[in-house]
Amino acid sequence: MARGTILFMRGLIAAFAFLPALARAAELVNLSDGYVQRCDHHALVDGRIRAYLSAGEDNYIDYKPAQIASIETIPDPPAPAPVAAPPTHIRLTAGDLREMLARAGADHNLDVDLLASVVKAESDGNARAVSRAGARGLMQLMPGTAAGLGVKDSFQPDENVRGGSTYLNKLLTEYHDNLALALAAYNAGPEAVDKYHGIPPYRETQLYVARVIHEFNRRVLAREAEARRTTATAHNADTQPAPTR
């Protein structure tokens, strides 16, 4: 069984527990004892610093001013969105892409539907997609990442898929098959995941992880439903009485 399928069946829903609450902006409260508390926003209330853990007013922690060393805002990084395909757009059929992803999945024991979900979120199947940050191709490889993976032309679909699947496999290994963390690292970089010891508090990254997992979930459930229909049809055919003369 492909590793992606195992991840889905054992912990797909649990992966959402790693997603911080989506917020318009986040703050880090650096305490004088070295502890860091992430919050949505803060306010001065009755001489204390009140750190609100969510956008509402009900969930908060009060600190004495002397307990706080500093408070910093965590900005969202600019969202790298794919742009329109150039006129030289490579025509790639759904069957071509599926075959390409199946080969890459077999090479790394990754579920083809996991790879398809990443491609859907990254480029929507556009082999010539280029993000504002410079990521290219089906799996949106940055030039430096592509070079490190031995990808010479990120606009060649087979090269791009090979490189992207190799990179995703490397991240899954690095984060001990934690799908949410591997996807976060694919989007924001391993440095950001390591810095925050989890999914970075970037709205774009949080949405990306949720989007890929949701799409993967949908595809696997659809695949399982189709398998059940096929089995039921075959069973009904086998149990039909033989025609009589």
How are the SSEs placed, and which strands pair?
Blueprint: H1 3-11, E1 26-31, E2 36-39, E3 41-45, E4 48-52, E5 60-63, E6 68-74, H2 94-108, H3 112-122, H4 143-148, H5 157-174, H6 179-188, H7 190-196, H8 203-239
Helix pairs in contact: 2-3, 2-5, 3-8, 5-6, 6-7, 6-8
Task: Give your account of this protein's structure.
By secondary structure, the protein is of the alpha+beta class. The chain folds into two domains: 3-20 and 78-227, Lysozyme (Orthogonal Bundle), CATH 1.10.530; 26-74, SH3 type barrels. The protein is built from eight helices and six strands; from the N terminus they run αββββββααααααα. It has helices at residues 3-11, 94-108, 112-122, 143-148, 157-174, 179-188, 190-196, 203-239, and strands at residues 26-31, 36-39, 41-45, 48-52, 60-63, 68-74. Strands 2-1-6 form a three-stranded antiparallel beta sheet, with no helix packed on it. Strands 3-4-5 form a three-stranded antiparallel beta sheet, with no helix packed on it. Strand 4 and strand 5 (60-63) form a beta hairpin. The longest helix is centred in the last third of the chain and has 37 residues, at 203-239. Mean pLDDT is 84; it is low at 9-24.
